[in-house]
Specification:
By secondary structure, this protein is an alpha+beta fold. Helix content is about 45%, strand content about 20%. The protein folds into 2 domains: about 60 residues, no CATH class; about 130 residues, Beta Polymerase, domain 2, CATH 3.30.460.10. It has 8 helices and 6 strands; from the N terminus they run H-H-H-H-E-H-E-H-E-E-E-H-E-H. A 6-stranded mixed β-sheet has the order 3-4-5-2-1-6. Helix 1 packs across helix 3 and helix 4 packs antiparallel against helix 8.
Length: about 200
C-alpha cells in the first residue's frame, strides 16, 4: 500500500513541477493514469510535497531556484503594495517548491473585506473576483490578478484571499512537520536574502 502511495506521489510531483498543477488535481490525474481508485492509496499532501522536493532536486535544482527567487520578488512587490492589509505569503512560493508555472498566493487581513477590492480599483489594478470554501466552511473571497513578472518574462497569477482582521489570530501557524504555513514580508525578505 505504501509503495503505491509513493508511486502516486512521484507521478503527481512530476505534474506539479512540469505543468504547475495544484496537488489535488495532480493526485487525481496520477491515480487515473495508474488505474487506481480509493482514498487508501491516495498520498497526503505532505507525501506529494516531499516527492516534489525530490523531483526538483533531481531534475531542475538550478532553474527552479532562479524561478522561485523571481516569484518571491514578485510576491514582495505585491506585499509592499498591499501593506495596509497585513499580507502573508502561503503556498508553493512560500514553502519553496514553486516553479515558473506556480501562482502566488497571499492572505490579506482586512477590517472590512471590501477595502482590498476598493484599493485595487483606486490603484487601477484589473482583477477577477471569485470565492472558495474557507477553513471554517464559509465562503472566502479571492481577488485574482495577472501580473507580468519581468524576471520570468511572463504573466504570473497573484491570488489575494480576503480574510477578516480577527482571522489572523486564529489561523493555523504550523504544518504537520512544524514548519510555518505562511510568512509576512519580513520573513519573505529573509528567504530572498538568504536565497533559501
Amino acid at each position: 500500500m505504501q509503495d503505491t502511495r509513493l508511486e502516486v506521489a512521484g507521478l503527481a510531483a512530476r505534474w506539479v513541477v512540469e505543468d504547475g498543477l495544484e496537488f489535488g488535481m495532480a493526485k487525481k490525474r496520477a491515480m487515473e493514469s495508474l488505474g487506481l481508485r480509493g482514498r487508501a492509496v491516495q498520498p497526503d499532501n505532505l507525501m506529494v510535497e516531499d516527492a516534489v522536493r525530490d523531483y526538483i532536486a533531481t531534475f531542475c535544482p538550478e532553474s527552479q531556484a532562479q524561478e522561485l527567487m523571481a516569484l518571491r520578488r514578485c510576491a514582495l512587490y505585491w506585499m509592499d503594495r498591499l501593506a495596509p492589509f497585513r499580507p502573508y505569503l502561503f503556498g508553493a512560493v512560500w514553502s519553496g517548491i514553486a516553479t515558473r508555472w506556480s501562482d502566488i498566493h497571499l492572505s490579506l487581513f482586512c477590517d472590512d473585506p471590501k477595502l482590498a477590492e476598493l484599493f485595487l480599483i483606486d490603484q487601477r489594478v484589473q482583477y477577477r473576483a471569485g470565492a472558495y470554501e474557507g477553513n471554517r466552511g464559509s465562503p472566502l473571497s479571492v481577488l485574482s490578478i495577472d501580473y507580468f513578472c519581468k524576471d520570468l518574462a511572463e504573466n504570473v497569477g497573484v491570488h489575494l484571499s480576503i480574510h477578516e482582521a480577527d482571522d489572523l489570530r486564529f489561523a493555523p501557524r504550523l504544518d504537520a512537520k512544524g514548519r510555518p504555513l505562511r510568512g509576512d514580508g519580513q520573513a519573505v525578505r529573509a528567504l530572498v536574502k538568504e536565497k533559501i
